[in-house]
Amino acid sequence: MLRGKDSAPKSYPEGFTPTYAHDNIAIDVPNGKLWLRDQSGYSTVLNKGDVLRWSEAYVAYGVHHTRNRLEVNVRDLGRPKFEVPFRRHIETKWGAKKNYAELQEWHSRLTAWVNNT
Predict the structure, then answer these.
(1) pLDDT tens-digit profile of 101-111?
(2) Greatest pairwise CA separation for the chain in angstroms
(3) What is the per-residue pLDDT across 66-82, written as a single tens digit (0 to 9) for each?
(4) What 3-state class would DSSP assign to 99?
């Protein structure tokens, strides 16, 4: 089941076939690979074992969360941290809620994938 296919990149690096995908993050479950695109535009494919920790990050604007991103720390001395944005929807109170919900979903998905598979 590929999720978010329409907004995900049109192509991934050779050998990476996403099982779950969003605009800036995708998981290839059978091959144990994670594709990330940082808010700078830099992207990479990592082995599951290279993912160290991850956390939700955002800017609180009243009761809303804006500039939602998943901060992923990895085993790479050159780029040890990726800030993966979740900004598919406009940053209004309605869109910000959707972006934050997608951030939470991917935080949970990454937790389940790294810790349980």
Answers:
(1) 998 999 999 99
(2) 43
(3) 788 999 999 999 999 99
(4) helix
Dihedral angle sign, alpha carbons of residues 110, 91, 93, 71: positive
> What is the distance of C-alpha 4 from the center of its chain?
12
DSSP-derived letter for residue 24 is S
Which residues share a beta bridge with 37?
43
Single-letter code of the amino acid located at 84? V
Residue 22 φ/ψ region, left for φ over 0, alpha for ψ in the -120 to 50 degree band, beta for the rest: beta
Neighbours of 69 (CB within 10 A): 21
d(CA 114, CA 54): 11
How far is the C-alpha of 79 from the C-alpha of 82, rounded, in Å? 7
Residue 63, SS3?
coil
Predicted TM-score (pTM) of the model is 0.85
